[in-house]
Amino acid sequence: AMAPGIGGFGGLYPFGDSYLVAGTDGVGTKLKLAFEMSKHDTIGIDLVAMSVNDIVTSGAKPMFFLDYFATSHLDVDIAEQVIKGIVEGCRQSDCALLGGETAEMPDFYAPGEYDLSGFAVGSVKKDAVIDGSRIAAGDAVVGLPSTGVHSNGFSLVRKILAKSGRSLSDELPGAGHSPLTIGHALLAPTKIYVEQVLDIIAKGGVKGIAHITGGGFTDNIPRVFPEGLAAEVRVGSWTVPPIFKWLKEAGNVEEAEMFRTFNMGIGMVLIMEQMAAEQILKGDEPAFLLGQVINGEGVVYK
Amino acid sequence: AMAPGIGGFGGLYPFGDSYLVAGTDGVGTKLKLAFEMSKHDTIGIDLVAMSVNDIVTSGAKPMFFLDYFATSHLDVDIAEQVIKGIVEGCRQSDCALLGGETAEMPDFYAPGEYDLSGFAVGSVKKDAVIDGSRIAAGDAVVGLPSTGVHSNGFSLVRKILAKSGRSLSDELPGAGHSPLTIGHALLAPTKIYVEQVLDIIAKGGVKGIAHITGGGFTDNIPRVFPEGLAAEVRVGSWTVPPIFKWLKEAGNVEEAEMFRTFNMGIGMVLIMEQMAAEQILKGDEPAFLLGQVINGEGVVYK
Residue A99 and residue B23: Cβ atoms within 8 Å? Predict the structure, then answer.
């Protein structure tokens, strides 16, 4: 009764003629950067993003969100900043902040630190659920741009930072006309794809959607693919943001590891009929044709 | 569109002819006792209990649960024990474990420690929602027994323990024929009231339900009461478990603070029509008549 959704990004629960789709996630060690930069007003956007971006992959419209905020001793100023971000994330994803829990747990967290988890529920009509089952060879692989590292890979980011000798307040090399610090580039809030993805779905022809989180293209795209099919991705078919170039160089990270850890500039991948993809690629919102579905396994980089 | 449920224990979201009811909670510093006793197989029951006991107060049947488990470095043995408890909690509350997130966050938690949060979603038909609005003077106040301290008040518990000089492996005074240690009494898993409460609701006459968590009777019962009405509670009308007597004596805690912090042996309070209450009090499952609804404010102890 739980299927479809095995291997998908949100859990599906049948309810009348709909599925309720639920997702939970935290923001991981990206929090450490927020602590170091004493900037707490966007990490709540990341928190909402991680869960709602998961559930929208089923075609579900997010309905409500709940948060859990845990700290040793409540700092009201910090908590207000965090909540401000959560409220903004809920606004961007058009869902209600239905509740939350603030837990004061002495001796659990270092002074000034906290952890966050979030939980989102959406719904989709059973006959409209997107589960990848209709994906076929020849379908288009379309990518939607990310705003940066989003909320995954920060354990590696922190290692690279330490190794590089750079500080968070140093300017990011290669940022060009819009100079920004490494810290601000890394802390940029995760893009919330809800509105854009639901719009694309409404136009028809979407067969599968992958939220590119920890594991990058390599691990996340195959989660929605039927057996025997692979995604052929042309490296160079989209713009890789400067932060990834810097991380690769500063950390001397192999390309394969970059693609297995980071989103590389694409936070959401849609598998679509070619005709439908053409319409999206001509639209106002930026989208890239990354490649196509072929016979095979996993992701084939070209 | 969010009402009813303001001041209630779960957030309500309208969906067709139903409300979806969602709750989130952790288990707080009870975790520290699990760490000290190296006993991780029931804390997951507490986790599920805290959320499902909240949502059943609206008359909602829990449908699914998701967990968030965060630790610095994953210890698979500990994680398996924790999940075992979560699975048992879901079994007891007849809800699906729909998903979860295991977050490895280096430098967040002390070695061997972790934090947990849980999210439950249930549903109730709009015309069957229980929100306290029909509570009237003369209604019965019925209590369902707890299994002990449940998952609240552990900051005070830990202070009392430190002050008392007792260890968790000392025998609990007053435990009588079934000797047990202070540690095991404190770590007893939170009772899951879902089946019992839904059975009582099905028999009719239930007007309001309060889950007795942090804040005890004093803060939780009034959350479901209309303006101008109070709960008159006869102290002595139920059996207070030995653990509360020991906590009161060992910590030299005032009665008022005990009732504002602990459940005192009653984990769930139902406000019912007198005739309906009589049937429940005669039933097989233990229940106590604590008192009645009177004109006034808050909880009046007698």
Answer: yes
State the total domains in chain A. Answer: 2
Of B128, B162, B180, the residue at which a domain comes to its end is: B128
pLDDT in tens, A153-197: 999 999 999 999 999 999 998 877 778 999 999 999 999 999 999
* Cβ-based contacts of A109 with chain B (< 8 Å): 108
Nearest to A11 among B24, B64, B117 (CB): B64
Residues A148 and A205 in one domain: yes
Which of B117, B126, B156 has the most A C-beta neighbours within 10 Å, making it the best mutation to test the interface with A?
Answer: B117
DSSP collapsed to 3 states, B62-121: EEEEEEEEEECCCCHHHHHHHHHHHHHHHHHCCCEEEEEEEEECCCCCCCCCEEEEEEEE
With beta carbons less than 8 A apart as the criterion, state whether B58 and B124 touch.
yes
Q: Is B17 an 8 Å CB contact of chain A?
A: no
Instruction: Tell me which residue range forms the domain holding B186.
Output: 140-301
Q: A108: nearest CA in chain B?
A: B109
Supply the ipTM of this predicted assembly: 0.94
Q: Is residue B86 part of a domain?
A: yes
The answer to whether the Cα torsion of B250, B252, B256, B257 is positive or negative is negative
In terms of domains, do B122 and B154 share one?
no
Quick one: angle between helices A43-56 and A194-203, nearest 10?
20
Structure tokens at A44: 């709540």
Shared domain for A149 and A188, answered yes or no, is yes
Residue B20 β-bridge partners:
B13, B123
Query: What percent of chain B is modeled with pLDDT above 90?
Result: 94
Separation CA B220–CA B212 (nearest Å): 6
B5's CB contacts (< 8 A; 6+ apart) are B11, B12, B19, B21, B58, B131
Average pLDDT, chain A: 95
B154, B265: one domain: yes
Choose the final residue of a domain: A69, A97, A128.
A128
Report pLDDT for A176: 77
Chain A partners within 8 Å of B108 (Cβ): 29, 31, 109, 113, 115
pLDDT averaged over chain B? 95
Is residue B231 within 8 A of residue B293, CB to CB? The reply is: yes
- pLDDT tens across B10-32, in order? 799 999 999 999 999 999 999 99
- pLDDT-derived band at A10, boundaries 50, 70, 90: confident
CB-closest option in A20, A25, A108 to B101: A25
How many angstroms separate the CA of residue B101 from the nearest CA in chain A?
A: 6
pLDDT-based confidence at residue B9 (cuts at 50, 70, 90): confident
